[in-house]
Amino acid sequence: MSLISGKQPIAEGKTKRVYLHDEPDKVILYFKNDITALDGLKHDVIHGKGYINAYITKYLFEKLEKAGVPTQLVEYVYPNIIIAKKIQMLPIEVVCRNIAAGHLVKKLPFFKNGQPLNPPVIEFFYKSDELHDPMVNEYHLQALRITSEKETLQMKDYTLKANRVLKDFFNKRGLIFVDFKIEFGRLSEDNLVIGDELNGDSMRLWASPDGRKAFDKDGYRSGDALDKVRETYIETFKVITGEEPLKEGLES
Ligand code: C5P
Prior knowledge:
This protein is α+β, with helices and mostly antiparallel strands. The chain has a domain at about 90-205: D-amino Acid Aminotransferase, Chain A, domain 1. The chain has helices spanning about 50-65, 100-105, 140-145, 150-170, 220, 225-240, 245-250, and strands at about 10, 15-20, 25-30, 35, 40-45, 75, 80-85, 90, 90-100, 115-125, 135, 175-190, 190-195, 205. Strands 8, 9, 10, 11, 12, 13 and 14 form a 7-stranded antiparallel sheet that branches. The protein has a 5-stranded antiparallel sheet with strand order 1-2-3-7-6, covered by helices on one side. The longest helix is centred in the middle third of the chain and has 24 residues, at about 150-170. It is globular, with a radius of gyration of 17 Å. The termini are close together. About 35% of the residues are buried. Bound molecules: cytidine-5'-monophosphate. Cytidine-5'-monophosphate binds near residues 179 and 181.
């Protein structure tokens, strides 16, 4: 708490607040307990969610860093804060899919739910709640000067590398890594890193091939009771990190 007490956030999103750090090249990411879906139309609060998602983000970002995929992570501060490199976030979401599910199946019904995608499918979405995050391609990104040609290649390269690392990791834990969403930020020109967060909110992680048991946010999206959703967050913490969450962290 002391890290942010008395400070005003410089930005606030649906699930995080961003504060300036005393060192100008860093920011403080504060993970909230808020949970949202349907572009923010559905909204609840789950105690311990900020802790769970900050910790899983730290855990997975460390894994990516070790594999040579750069991230925004500097340091995790219990329970729900990440000190991060200050970067200029790009207004896009990058989705990578190993198995057809979610919007891919809804928008392009010739893909069947559960169908393997090989090679993986990468999609870009322009971030706008108002426009419901429309899909764009890499030519749009360059025409809009959102990314340079080099940055576009870098983004695709890091996304596929991150996918390989995470897929192997989850497969070893007996889980099916269906898809995930990451966001990138610019550290300097032509030098992107993965930013924001990476946890059960930003991926589909199936425990069974039909996706009926899953460690992700789809239960909340499809109307599960909040108690069940909270239980899934706790299970997701355990299954990803292999650790037990701290009791007081879950109450924070
Ligand atoms: O909804 P859709 O099928 O496009 O989602 C693909 C992946 O991206 C899912 O893992 C979902 O959790 C994630 N996603 C996200 N934030 C969004 C949209 C999708 O984390 N705004």
